[in-house]
Structures are given as structure tokens and as C-alpha cells.
Automatic annotation (TrEMBL):
Short name of one Pfam family: rve_3
InterPro entries, alphabetized: Integrase_cat-core, RNaseH-like_sf, RNaseH_sf, Transpos_IS3, Transposase_IS3/IS150/IS904
GO MF term list: nucleic acid binding
UniProt xrefs under Gene3D superfamilies: Ribonuclease H-like superfamily/Ribonuclease H (3.30.420.10)
Ranges for domain Integrase catalytic: 108-280
Name of the protein in its database record: Putative transposase
GO biological process, one term: DNA integration
Length: 287
């Protein structure tokens, strides 16, 4: 706008026509302020007290982005994002590549205790070497109902996690009398005769994902990612006992305090909030 008007005025002056800027603005239908306005650079001020709190929160949760940090600190997310940008404290973004997704067998459910999911992962335990961690997650609330860390990845470990989940949810260990599915991959542990017999004895319906499609068991896979980024990779365990203690504290934090994306970062799996629509559905189902 400004350069166009001034160049047009110069061309007219070369041809012998003296035209004022006001007149040119009238001809072109431009407001005169576009010719005289000069933007003033605004100095971005950082709230030092808030920046100190953000830094302390980052030291405790180094993998959190500005949305989850804002939830943890109880602040608006925009000043948190501005501080992370100006201080260069932003978390590295994961590369977004194309991955084909399986459309069948969705794992998300509409009510608690409709489908559970289970899987195994490995944890390095120092002198006790590699341990196996089995977890049971509710596909509606994302709550970890049972888990077991042992020095071997046998079916006994997975069965112990399942029995802990049954006791936690139903108060006693025995056959349940409501439809409940248990999803897992096709690993040797979950397809073994001993494990399948145990699942059947407790009244659960076992379902397996399609081979080579871990996204069909995406809830438990996503939990393992959070567990490794926020807990396992932040520690160097010296023994199996130390790993059990640290993992137990983090899983308790995950269930009771950690803001969850499925609850719009406004509640933990076992403590949904009172205002969010999605959390209200979960809360109503738990009552």
C-alpha cells in the first residue's frame, strides 16, 4: 500500500502532474493512516516468578509440553508457551510421518470395565538385569488397574497383573458375571494355554489384535511410551526392588494426579473433573 502510492506519485510527478498523497488515497480508496503508520516493536516481557515455576516444573516433568505444564501449574497456557519460546525450553517435537492405520477393532470404549488391554515391556534393572513389566489398563478411563514387574516374562507375570486388576476393580478374586473383554497381542505369553485358561476361568473374553498391527492395542502402547519417557528413562535402576518402588510411585501418580489428554488435560484417570463433557461421562459410568 504505502510503496504503491508513493511510486505512483513519483510517476505522475515525472509526467508533470503534481498530485498530493491525500488525493491519491481518495482515488485508490486507501485510508491515509496506511501512509504514516509506523509499527513500534513491542518488547516481550517475561514474568520472572512464573518463569521460575515453569523451570521447576520442567525439572520434575522434562517431557511435558506447554499445555500439560499449564494444567500442572494452574495457569493460562499462552504465557507458559511464551516463556518456553523465549527461554528456548520447548520440548523436541516428534517427526510426523505417514503410517497406515488399521480401521478395525477400535480399542476405545464408552464405559469402564467394558474392555481391558494388556501388554508386556522390558525394564533394565541394573544388577538384576532385564525385568518384564505387565500392565492392565481400562480402555475407557485409561486407569492402570494392575501391574507386575518380575525377573522373567512368563505367563505368571501377566496372570499376576490380571489378578491384581480383578481384586482392585471387583474387590475379590473370582469369576466375574458381566461381559468384559481382555485385549492383547499375539505374543507367546498371552496365547499360551495356561494364560488363556486363566482368563477363561475368571470369566473374561480374550481378544487378539491383528498380527503386525500394534495400533489396535494403542492405549497400552501409548501408556508404555509415557512410562518410559517420564519415568524409566529418567532413572538408572540398580535393582529390581528399586525399579518396583519407583514404578509404583509413578503409576500411582499417573492414576491419581497426572493430567490426561483423553480428559482434555483436566483430570487424572481415576479422578475425572466435574466440568468436562468427556470426564462427566466417565464419572457417571463409575458411579
Amino acid at each position: 500500500g504505502r510503496e504503491l502510492v508513493r511510486s505512483l506519485q513519483a510517476e505522475l510527478a515525472q509526467e508533470g502532474h503534481v498530485v498530493s498523497l491525500v488525493k491519491l488515497c481518495q482515488w485508490l480508496g486507501l485510508p491515509r493512516r496506511t501512509l504514516y503508520y509506523r509499527p513500534k516493536p513491542r518488547r516481550r516481557v517475561i514474568n520472572t516468578d512464573l518463569a521460575t515455576r515453569v523451570k521447576l516444573a520442567l525439572e520434575r516433568f522434562p517431557t511435558y509440553g506447554y499445555r500439560r505444564l499449564a494444567c500442572v501449574l494452574g495457569e493460562n497456557r499462552k504465557p507458559i508457551q511464551r516463556i518456553l519460546q523465549l527461554k528456548n525450553w520447548q520440548v523436541r517435537k516428534r517427526p510426523q510421518g505417514f503410517r497406515p492405520r488399521a480401521r478395525s477393532l477400535p480399542s476405545v470404549t464408552t464405559r469402564p470395565d467394558e474392555r481391558w488391554a494388556t501388554d508386556l515391556t522390558h525394564v533394565w534393572c541394573g544388577k538384576d538385569r532385564r525385568g518384564s513389566l505387565a500392565v492392565i489398563i481400562d480402555c475407557c478411563t485409561r486407569e492402570i488397574l494392575g501391574w507386575r514387574l518380575s525377573d522373567n516374562g512368563s505367563s505368571k507375570t501377566a496372570e499376576a497383573a490380571l489378578e491384581e486388576a480383578l481384586v482392585f476393580r471387583f474387590g475379590a478374586l473370582g469369576r466375574i458375571h458381566q461381559p468384559l473383554a481382555l485385549r492383547s497381542d499375539n505374543g507367546l505369553v498371552f496365547s499360551s494355554r495356561h494364560y488363556t485358561a486363566t482368563v477363561k476361568a475368571y470369566g473374561l473374553t480374550q481378544e487378539f489384535t491383528t498380527p503386525y498391527t500394534p495400533e489396535q492395542n494403542g492405549l497400552v502402547e501409548r501408556f508404555f511410551r509415557s512410562l518410559k519417557e517420564e519415568c524409566i528413562w529418567q532413572h538408572r535402576f540398580e535393582s529390581l526392588g528399586q525399579a518396583r518402588a519407583v514404578l509404583g510411585r509413578w503409576i500411582r501418580y499417573y492414576n491419581e494426579e497426572r493430567p490426561h489428554q483423553s480428559h482434555r488435560l483436566c483430570g487424572a484417570p481415576s479422578t475425572p473433573c466435574n466440568s468436562c463433557v468427556g470426564c462427566a461421562k466417565t464419572r457417571g459410568s463409575l458411579q
